[in-house]
Each structure stands twice: as C-alpha cells, then as structure tokens.
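pinning this so it doesn't scroll away 📌
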Amino acid sequence: MPELPNILFLFPDQLRRDFLSCYGAEFIDTPNIDSIAGRGVRYDRAYSASPLCVPARTALMTGMNAIRNGVSDNLHALRPDYNEAGIQTWPQLLSDAGYYTSAVGKMHFYPWDALHGFQYRVVCEDKLWTNIRDDYHHYLTEHGRKKMPWDRYGDYLEKKGAATTDVPWEHSWDRYTGREACRFIDNYGGDGPFAMMVGFPGPHDPYDPAVDFSERFNPEDMPDPVPAADDDPGSLRATHIEARRNMGMDLEQFTTEEKKTIRAHYAGLVKQIDHEVGEIIDSLRSRGLLENTVIIFSTDHGDYLGDHGLDGKAAFFEAATHIPLLVSLPGGLQGSVNSDLVELRDVTATILKIAGCEQPRYMDAQILPDLGFQEPPARTRIFGMLTQGWMVFDGEWKLCQYSLDGPMLFNLKDDPDELINLVKDPAYGDVFRRLSAELTKEMMQSIVLSMHDRLVAPYSLSSEDRMGREGWQWKFPADASEATKVGVDYY
C-alpha cells in the first residue's frame, strides 16, 4: 500500500453467517459479499463477544470489552465524558490522523444523533425506533411516506416478525443507506483517505423485504431451525417469552412453519443488502478507488430465527455470537480462509493499524491475522460478556453462565448445535472447573481495569504531603494526559 488506503466498513445489523453463500449457504446466493472474501480473508471463527446491538457496537467503537467500557446491555451507553476519562473512539483517532470519517446508516448511539468522532453522518436508525426524526425520516417525508411502527404491521405479531410492507424497495431502509454511501463516495471519495462505516439497518426485524424486489424466497427452501433441547436455559427462555408476550407476540407457540417463514423474509433482506454492497463496490470502482480501499464486512451479532425456540439474540448460542467477518486488503491475500479465534472488536485494532495510528493501551482489541502485519499471539479464548450472562469458549468447549439459569457446557466439536449440556456429567468435571476458573479470572481482571477512570492516582499516596492536608481533592474525571500515565503504570 504506497499511500494510506481508504477504509470501507460494511456493517449489517443482526446478520447470520450461514445466510451467506461464502459461508456455505446453498439456498441463497450473495455474490457481492462473496467477492470481498474472494479478494481477501474469510475468518471462519469470528465471534461477537457481546451479542447485543449496543454492547457489540460500543466494544467496537472503543476497542474494549463490555465490562471495561461499562456497556453490557441495550440500556447502557458510553459515558458522555469518555474523552475526559482518557478514551477515544476509533473514528476520533482516524480523524486526528487525517482521515475523513463517515458514518452512514444505523449506529445505535445514545443520543441517536451523536457523532462519536465521525465527521460526516447520515442517519438511518434502528428499524424498531420509528419515532426517531433522522435523515431517513426526512427523506420519507419528502416522498410522502413515513416509517411504519412495528405494532402497525398487520402481520408482524402473529407471524413472529415476518412482516409485509407497502414501502417499495427504492425507498426501503437498506436501499436508502446504500444509496447514501454511494453518494459519499461520489462526492468525497477522491478528496483524500476516508474511513466510512455503513450500518445497514437490515436484516434486523421487522423482517420486511420489499415486495417489488426481484428476489423472493420460499419457506420450504429454508434450512431447518435448531430444536429446543431439554437443557436449554429455561428461565432465560421464559423471560424472553414473557417479554414478547408483553409486546403481543406469542412465542409459546412457535411452529417450524413460522420459523421457516421468518427465515424466508430474512433471506430476502440479506439479498437486498448484497445488492447494496455491489452498488457501493461499483461506486468505488467507477471512481478508481477500489484498488486502494480496504473493505471490511461484519455484523454486530446474529439472529436465532427460531433456533432453540428463540428469536433475536442476547445469549451465547452460536446463532447469535458466531458472526461473519471478511477483510479485503489491497495487495493482501486473496481467497484465504483463517480459522483462528477472533473477535468483532479486533476490527478496531486492525483499522487503527491500517491507518497508521498507535493503538491506545486501554484497548484490548488485537490485530486480525493474515493481513501482513506483525501480529500478537493468536487468541486462545473468547470471553463473552452481557448483563445477564458470561461465556468462555476455547475453540472446542463453551461454558455459559447465566444469571437466570445454571451453567451450560457444550462441546462444539461433537455437538455444533449445542443440544447436549454436559455440565452435570462427572466425566467433564475437570473441563468445567478449568473453564470456570478461566472465566472468573478474566471477569475479575476486566472489572479492575474498568475502574481506571476512578483511580485516584497510579501510585501509592501514603507519602504524598498534599494528600494529608485539609481540603485536598483528587481530580475527577482524569484528563487525557493523566489517563495516558495510568495506561503506562496501571494497565
């Protein structure tokens, strides 16, 4: 790469890896997304350690896990004074390095119109947040339309999220987002290095593919859902069912036919996103920018789509936490497959490296392998973190601890669908104890490191004369220089 490359980060919301043909799906063809894998590296064991929208995205923005950044569910937010506490987002760091940073589509920030370091922003927010008066709202208004609240879809509740919309494809969420991404490339792509994150609102529910989009899917052609096992987390499911019941949706009765129907609708949305990816790549090509643009494709988490009798995400089953991740680097490997354990937030460390930025010491993200950079030792564990549960996965054994249920232990080599909970089998007691100890240690270390902004000083105050006098105050929040010092002495 003779000059700083452009960085394009394509980021659909709630996308399952097994609904992409480059990951082996035979019922759908996603040639434009596949082309990124063909031009680069496909990561087969990529995980979202916090498989829920806001925690996953905050970990990505900060390069820190959910305990360390303090955001472990959708009702949390990155503290507003994070800069004063010594934290910078990756867009801030790239902006300081001379990149023009752009966010198009869904970001799921609080407040929704925050910039968090992006210099250019076009907002098309979450498909369930229909009260937001974002750029997409104003676009629809100009065209005599408006967002449809989920509870006004005539069939949304009875069909478990599979919805029918009267909004044509040309005015749909993902079409708008893709078109705005192309507009940014056309207007600013030649002005110098840019870094653009494109947050497609789909294929998150409502599963509402445009009726006039050419590609439609038959429920009978969809893969069968993973059944609910006797040892699935019962309290977790009960809480999930109750939450849906409060919305007016009955998941107590969730038939295979209903699951395949939502999968067919979901596949339609995936196909629409693949089309937009092709349009964006074509914009790069037509402007002569493709050969000097890094393209990264991933998602915040997957979607159960009926697996284990659930919908959505927010637990550590593979359908939610095992994600697609593709990276195409100019001059890099082509058509390569990597099987190392990697995490979504490793994208952050990789973006910083590509941009020539030094990675702050508070980040625990790692540079992705096989991209030609000096790499740290490969990850041997994925540690999952959400408010209601924790996980450790060593590549074969997965231990999940939930606040509402007992622990769950799976061997993914022998049981890839996670149907057999081995936690009570005495033959695997040593495995359970080993993973439990590893998980406890990681959580304790993360909790300690999450307190950095409350540290009075990075050294003992026992011999500090000023501290012993009346009226002494410690400085809060720490400014960036103090946080850097803490980073050296404390992290």
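📌 and the second one:
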Amino acid sequence: MTGELRAALAEALPDRPFTLRLWDGSSLPPTNGHAGPTFDLTTPVALGHILRAPSQLGVGRAYVSGGIDVDDMDAALALIAQWSPPPIDNRVKAKIAKGAVKAGALRHVPRVPEMELRPTGARHSILRDKRAVTHHYNLSNEFFSLFLDESMTYSCAVWSRGAQTLEEAQATKLELVCTKLGLQPGMRVLDVGCGWGAFALHAAREHGVHVTGITLSEPQAQLARDRAAAAGLADQVDIRVMDYREIAGEQFDAIASIGMVEHVGSVNIDAYMAKLASLLAPGGKLLNHGIARLRVGEAEAGPFSERYVFPDAAPLHLSRIQTAIERAGLHTRHVEDFPDDYARTLLEWQHRFEANLDRARALGGDERVRVWRIYLRVSRQGFESGFLSVYQVRAERAR
C-alpha cells in the first residue's frame, strides 16, 4: 500500500541526507552516502496530520502524537537547521497526497494532541494570559525539578563569571541581579513573574530586603511560600497569585522582571513598562531580564511554540523593549547580554531532562516529554545561531 507513496517521496526528495522509514517497514535510504538520522513514520495518521495542516503545525502534531519518531534527535535537528529541501511543484505534491491517501492517511480523522492549546479571547487579556501561562507552568513542581537546579531558577544562568555547575551559575545570576539593583536591607522589592521564588528567597536571605513576588501559577506560588517558610523568611517574602496589571496602591524601591517580558507581547509592552515605572519609588531601579529576537523581519514565534510550549509568548526586539522603557519615563543605565550563557544553561537542562525521561513521562505524559525534548534543543539552537539573545537592562526612575 505504500509503494506509490514511496515513489512520490523519492521523486520529491532526490537528495536525502537521512533515512525515511514507513510504518510497514519499508524505507527510503539516504542518497548522500552517509547514514544520517532516521525518521520513522509510525502510522499513516502522521501523514493525515500533515495533509490537514501542511506546515510546521501538522508536522508538530504528528510528532507530539507519536506518529513521527527519530533515532537521534540532536542529529535530526542539526540536519533540519542546515538542510534546504528542494522546491516541490504542484504535480509532485499531488502525487504525494494521492499516495498518502491510498496508504490510509485520511482513513480516520487524526486526533489533535491533548498538549495542544489554542487560547481564546482577546490576546494578552488577563484571562487569556493566565490560561496561556498556566498551560506551561501548572505541571507538578517535581516535573520542573527534574531539570532545574536546586533553587528552581527557570531562566538563564550566568556561567561567564567563573561558575562550574548549574547551581553556581544560577546563584551568580541571582546575585548579579541584586548587585545591579543595589539592594540594601529594608528595601521593598517587587519580583514580577517570581516562579518558584528563587530570586525572592535569595534577595531576602542575602540582602535583607522585603520581596513581593507575583505569579499566575498557584502551584508555583505555594512552593515558593513553603520554601520561604522553611528558610525562616516568611516575614520577608510575600508571594501572590496575581497579574501585574492588578497591583495597585504600592511602591517599591526596586523591581526585578526576570523571564517575564517574553510573555507580555508587543501589544502590551508599553503598558507593561508604564505599569512597572508607576510602581517604582522616585530613584527606584528596574532590572529587566528577558529573551529578545535579533533578526528583523522574522516571525515572533512558530506555530509549534505557539500551540505546545509558550502560547502567546514571543520575544521582542531589544529596541522595542527599550522604546517602551523610554516611553515609561525610565532612564536606561546599563545593558548586558548573555547568549552563550543561555545556550549552556539549556544544554545543562537538556542533559538533566534526558537523564530523567521515565520519571518525566510518569509526571507529565508522553506528549509533554516529546514537546520538552524538542523545546530545550531548539531553544538552545536559537541562541547558538544568533536568532536570540538574552538581555539584562537596568533602568531608573528619576528622583
């Protein structure tokens, strides 16, 4: 049943630096003299996904649902990053579609993976943002502990100042943020997107400040509160489940926004920075730590990330973030980027995750494990290829 499909695929891909194996055991061997990775189509349903959504989304659905497997994920992603498939004319596309249908690709309507989220409502409204953020974060806290360091810091570690372990590199980053903010005992600090409380606990313990942390994830908030209590810092660390737009009537001497700006979006970046500026006391400092795109003209995020990793999240260009900071009336005093540090952080997370795949499947399911294996690797490629960087920007409000 797959003979016609194999012939059409062979015509469409005359130069193949990989093996393509079909569900009946037949295959198309590589044509470049090298073995390369092997892509397995484990079921005709995989082609059903691709025919119904002939883009990155269809391929993503096929992969997440288990219809596509690879024997060497790193080799496969390296190949995808550098290999340019030939253009396929409509005649050959029709032959592939015909062969796929004959092989059973459309015999059943393929099930959209449970992991896929398509948020509804106004983009970056409070309700939609909460749904999008909790889609990623509201797993068991143990799932994230499988690859994060002991502090549960889910952002770029700083290795370039001499750290040798992930724990050291994350402690270096947390202390660097405190130093840039000039924290002194008794200061009031806001931690926007506080996660599991790593920065809040470090700042309170090491610098004697009072930290208010906000997150949209209740599991994160509860663990952060428990950790603060266990460390004897409950009176210095206040963790709330709330949106940044809901804070009112308070002022802070310093604000840390670590890994938060990526979730704000271009539609709200001006309002976000204006809100943070309004919460700063005169002379107060803001440290914005976030991923930024480097290339102009490319999409903010692909459909795979939009549906499976960070719905509605998209890194903006540094220039756009800076414009928002300036429009908010803040004075930028220092800018520093850490692309190599983030690439190394993601590699460390990848190694730790790969060492705990069985437990990850038990906690999050096979679909989520498939997503995370891709997400950690592709994110690292983004920093290694010059598509992304991560910046720390320190700005101040006038006295």
